[in-house]
Amino acid sequence: MVAEAMPNAASSRGEADLARDSLQRLARVIQPGETLTLRAGYAAQESTIELPAEAVKLLAEILESMASGRPVSVMHHDAELTTQQAAELLHVSRPFLVQLLEERKIPFRKVGTHRRVRFDDVMRYKEAIDADRRKVLNALAAEAQELDMGY
Fold this sequence. Notes:
5 helices; three-stranded antiparallel sheet; two-stranded antiparallel ribbon; 21% strand; alpha+beta; single chain; 2 domains
């Protein structure tokens, strides 16, 4: 399952405002780790819905992104991505991603001539490079402190 919300120019401002308002209202009533009961529907047909705590957390994250005008995608962790989708997630070019795949830094499989990459594997790689980046930045900051560089 992949669901995307990418506002177009005409509806983005109105949807961002609605998302912001919804997020503010939601923030007033949610309790972390607790289920949430919502009343949903239209005037003629309303229903009470109980949302699991994790779904409430995801809903808040989606509304926050939409309020900021950022596109939102929801997908299963075991979803397979094209090389273009994986490259976009990592904020790299598709040729650079293909190089990572060929170097076996990220697992993939071929479907005919096309490469497919699991979302989990892309995120695992992203977490690893982010952790490496943090280590390097911390080392640089510590060295700057030792050398009394003023920051």
